[in-house]
Amino acid sequence: MVLLKVKFTQQRRVRLAQGLWLLSWMAVMWGAIIFCLGVYLKTELLRRAEVMDNTEIHVVPNILMMVGLASIGTNWVATRVCQDSLDPARFPRWKVFLLAWFAAAAVICCLLIIVVVLSYALQGRLEESLKVGLRNGIRFYKDTDVPGRCFQKETIDRLQMEFRCCGNNNFKDWFEVQWISNRYLDFTSKEVKDRIRSNVDGRYLLDGVPFSCCNPASPRPCLRYHLTDNNAHYNYEYQSEELNLYSRGCRQALTDYYMELMNSTGPGVLSVILIQLSVLLSLRYLQTAVESAMALEDPEGESEGYILEKGVKETFEDVKAKALAMLKAVQVDPGTTEGTAEATDTEKAATPTPAS
């Protein structure tokens, strides 16, 4: 049974070709937009690569860029098919190629759906990657003289100022690491010696944070040291000074930023899916309608267009049978191989050895 059969006159075929031509160019532009979104997201991820532990999240922009380029190419081909559909002499050359085009368009739609799913599914991996990356970044903050970590301090400071955050989870993360390099510590000072001796690891720990944690919205000058000592500063109470430092951790700030970026691509990706499906179905109707008219040898007469020549189940069974037949044709028969090998050995044995 033919699936979704529609009658087409010559005028309706022309209008379908014209409308599909415009729709295909629209899909080309959306493909370019998707590619640009992928490039932008990839760039933003690479900018923060130093505070990320893995690159699994890069699969999202990689697929966006790949699908964007594929969408541009396939839909440009669709515009050429629309132009040639009005010429009975040129359209038959697309018959074999269109099968591959439909497969490519279906794969593009599937990949776009995968992008939408991954945008939400990878949130947990993104948070874990930022957690480990920021923890290492804070730990190496003081290593400005170590090769490979020279710019870690600048990266963390710029990150905290740009995203208005402090630490990994909060500003207390700085209390657990020595973020001041030994190069800038006076080891003849009694205070420095006492702090180092009081720590089992021999680290210089203090209840202070870098300058980049200071909140410019605070009404008082920033307090960065002795943050847990209410008596160290005038008119100061540790638990109520919310504006003195950024209260949000950088992991949460970066997760929100990247998830907002990926989620903002959702409406655009869904639009591309709808447009791509429209192009796919319209081109199938155009192909079958034109081929039907050519089979009747009446290019200007009425023809029938459809999505599938048979029902969904019958079509699936046909495709499955053809795939199995192709696999059997490619597969080598072991018995035949052994027989051929035995025949070859027999021929070699029967061949007389030339006298020396």
Question: Taking Cα atoms only, what radius of gyration do you get, to the nearest Å?
Answer: 34 Å
Main beta sheet strand tally, sense and closure: 2 strands, antiparallel
Give the overall average pLDDT. Answer: 83
How many helical stretches?
A: 9
Roughly what fraction of the amino acids lie in strands? under 5%
* Uncertain spans: none
The total count of strands amounts to 2
Spatial strand arrangement across the major sheet = 1-2
Briefly note the structural class of the backbone.
mainly alpha
Categorize the overall geometry: elongated
Helix percentage range: 55-70%
| N-to-C span | 76 Å
- Give the quaternary arrangement of the chains: single chain
Reading the helices and strands in chain order gives EHHHHHHHEHH
How does this structure look, described?
The structure is a single chain. This protein has helices spanning 10-47, 59-84, 95-121, 123-139, 152-162, 190-197, 250-295, 312-330, 334-350, and strands at 6-8, 303-305. With 356 residues, the protein is mainly alpha-helical. Helix 4 (123-139) runs antiparallel to helix 7. The protein is elongated, with a radius of gyration of 34 Å. 25% of the residues are buried.
Topology (SSEs and partners):
Blueprint: E1 6-8, H1 10-47, H2 59-84, H3 95-121, H4 123-139, H5 152-162, H6 190-197, H7 250-295, E2 303-305, H8 312-330, H9 334-350
Antiparallel strand pairs: 1-2
